Amino acid sequence: MKKLLVVVTITLLLFTLSACKEDKVPDDRIIITYASWNLGSPDTLETNMERLMIDAFMEENPNIRVDIIERPKVPGTNGDMDWNEFLAARASTQTLPDVFQSDNIPYYVINDWTYNISDIALADSEFLNISEDIRGVATYNDKVMGIPNAVFYAGYIVNKTLYEYQGQTAPDLDTTMEEFLTLTKAAADHNSSTNQGVIGLEGIEHIIHWYPAQLNENLGWYTLNEDGFNLDSSEFGDSISLYRDLATDSSFVWEALLSASAVEDSGVDISTMFPEPVGAYFDNGAILAKWFYSWDFGWIQTKINDGDYPWELDFIGTPVVNGNKSVPIVADFFTLASNTDYPEEAYLLSKWMGFGVDGYLKRIELSTTVPGISKVNFAPIQNDVQLLDAYFELYPGLPGLRTIIEAGSFIVEPPKYMPGYIDARYQGTFDADNKMSDVINSLLSGEIQYADIKVALNTQANNLYNQAKTLFDDALSDK
Predict the structure, then answer these.
(1) The CATH classification of domain 2-150+333-404, taken from the options 3.40.190.10, 3.10.310.10, 3.30.420.310, 3.40.50.1820
(2) Which long-range CB contacts under 8 A does 11-17 form with residues at least 24 apart?
(3) Most buried residue, 182, 306, 321, 445, by CB count within 10 Å?
(4) What is this structure's pTM?
(5) Residue 8 predicted with pLDDT over 50
């Protein structure tokens, strides 16, 4: 540990001296420091969108200079320092970047690294135009501790052409879960004797996370609500049952097709008819419905534009259950440093780089005019017609996403904003032999039965959550 601390300290000292040496030209602008994990290397010849956005911000705001804080390399390697070690080293010298990307907001609050930006954010009409489902997750007791800077949508892309070729109606945004599974199973062909089969469904891993909230709109991701986890609920039990049904149905589910039980049940290794990775079948138009996150939409749209995907695709998110449709999303956030001297200017930069109208339109402009820049890889965070029009000029091939965004009903994955979630779901101790993730994996595989474990599972998940939440609430009260 002492050796690591010395290495971190020396690395930070060398970096600080280097930064001071480079800052030769004094000026009277406000200086805002910035750090993020998506800036690429400063030495590469590749053009980086985020660095272009920062340059554009300074052009728009000539009274502000943005200094990028580069993450140091680990001595003796080509790898970057761990993100939180980097932040801890900066925090130890009160030099946290004024704006930095966040992978664990509660951890930053507990360590007093974050600035309460409520007064500025809650007075901003653009911030309030973000769906409450998104902005609300990083607002704790009316204290805004994180600012959304990108949102990625999760769900199924369906090959409408293939469904129709297989004699079935293609699922759409209003299709129920029952209809979705029935249509997909009817259209699949996992037993083709000519190796020309059609794969039905890929992507069942997250059913236990998003399905409970579809069954009951008072639940969120992984059964969460204001009281904590509800892993002993009928909704979670039904989600486990649905996962097990799908994971063992090799007639149309990719994960079941590859399982050992499929061979045991049929005596035939059906997967030999589909020897390639699942992505190859999507590329060949031979899969009906596949789970994606919207960060993949750029290359998918390029394939559509280039004629490599001549079939009609659409993104339907998750199917409707009990009349509910709340689409899962992954959100990225910025945090403003507790040591910032310029919170308003730091907020302005974070808004420009993420949810703001002016910044997002500049991002669209850069992605369409600068050679070597990829398409914007996240849809607008605000439900704003001008922004949506601009984005969907780039992404006309998946029109369902626009309707989903305009509906504004989402379930946000919690690791970046919820105290205790990672321990309660994955890393925490369940008993002497198992982590929490081990118990869930055993449930999903059928090694243990839900009825035998549900009370203990829910109790321990909430114990871990409440321990973390107590620490977090104590730290938040000082903000």
Answers:
(1) 3.40.190.10
(2) 11/72, 11/73, 11/74, 11/75, 11/81, 11/89, 12/72, 12/89, 12/90, 12/93, 14/72, 15/70, 15/72, 16/93, 16/95
(3) 321
(4) 0.89
(5) no
